Every structure is written in structure tokens, then in C-alpha cells.
Amino acid sequence: MKRLMIFMTFMAFGTWLVYFLSVGPSTLQEEPTPPQPVNRIQFSDVVFRQQVGSQLQMEFLSRESLFDEVAESALLDGVNFTVFEVEGPLKGQVAFEGRADQARLDGKKDLIVLSGNVEIREARGVRIHTELMEYREQRKTLISPGAVTIRSAESVHEGESMIYDLNRKKITLKKPVFYQ
Question: CA–CA separation, 104 vs 113, rounded Å?
Fold first, then answer.
């Protein structure tokens, strides 16, 4: 029994010593890291335009905007947007327009994420409503990972998600439901 008590005392002391040395307060002074420059600029009532050469590609109007130069991104609140055709016979005409509660423009990924009550009106009269939509500029696709409603003059379609290839004018719905 005496050996057990001695063993337990050494174990408790050893555990305390290991904890104190590895987790306890450090006596070394750490050098403070200098603050990183913050390149965030906030504006109200902003018009953002993107051009390809002299041709206007898209335009965003926003109540409030936060730009981050380091991340090459912008966060826009209360957004109305217009995307124009930049090639082909419809060059310069509106491809689609719409509104969203918020938009995040990512310059590094050529990605625009629209969120919150997203409504898109396509030039042919098709209206798309969802809560989250991604626009991939390079591939010219609209992707909605969540529930989506598509309305035209003739019908209403709903689905769990959507991919809209703007080059081919083809909409693919996951688990579509059709109403007339």
C-alpha cells in the first residue's frame, strides 16, 4: 500500500510538472506582430461597371459596398444588376438583369455570389427566383445550389437546384416540378 501511495504521489507531481512546463505561463516575451494593413473601403450608393475593351459587360448598383483590395473582392448590399451580351448578334443588349439583397464579387475567381431574395429577369422574359445564385463569368453559367422557381409566360418550374448555361441557353433543374 505504501508503494502505491508513493507511486501516486510521483504521478501527480509528474503530471503537474508536465502541465506547468507545456501549458503554463511563458516567461519568454513574444515579439508583437505588426498590424497588417487593412485595405477595406466602404462606400454608399455605388455604381460598379465592368468592361471588356470598350464594351460594357456588367453593371451593379448598390446601396452600400465594402471593397477589399487585398482579397480583390467586394461585398455589395441592396444590389440591382445588369449583364450585357459582349459578343454575337446581340452584342450590347441586356442578357439578364435582376436584384439581390447582397452580392460578393470575387475578382480572383471570376465569381459573383448573389444571396438573399435573388430575382433574375432574362431577356426572353424568363424570371428566376432563389435565395443563393453563383455567376461564373468564364463559363457563362448561373448556378443555384438551393430551391429555385423559374417563371415564363407559359409555365412555372420549380426544382431543388439549377444550372443555367447562358451560352447554350439551357437550364437544367434537379428534381423539377412543372406547373402550367
Answer: 5
Residue for grid cell 448578334: 89
Contact (CB, 8 A) for 53 and 83: no
Strand ranges (E), the chain? 40-52, 55-68, 73-84, 94-106, 111-122, 127-136, 141-144, 148-151, 156-159, 161-165, 170-174, 177-179
- For residue 88, give every residue at least 6 positions away whose Cβ sits within 8 Å of its Cβ, in sequence order, or none: none
- How far CA 13 is from CA of 23, 26, 107, in Å, comes to 15, 20, 57
Tell me the residue type at 127: R
Which residue has cell 465569381? Answer: 111
Where along the chain do its domains lie? 40-179
CATH numeric code, 40-179? 2.60.450.10
* Tens digit of pLDDT at every position of the chain (180 positions): 677 677 777 677 667 656 655 655 554 455 565 555 456 667 778 887 888 777 888 888 898 888 887 778 888 899 999 988 888 888 888 888 999 999 998 877 778 899 999 999 987 888 999 999 998 888 888 899 999 999 988 889 999 999 999 888 888 999 888 776
On whether the CB atoms of residues 171 and 152 are closer than 8 A, the answer is: no
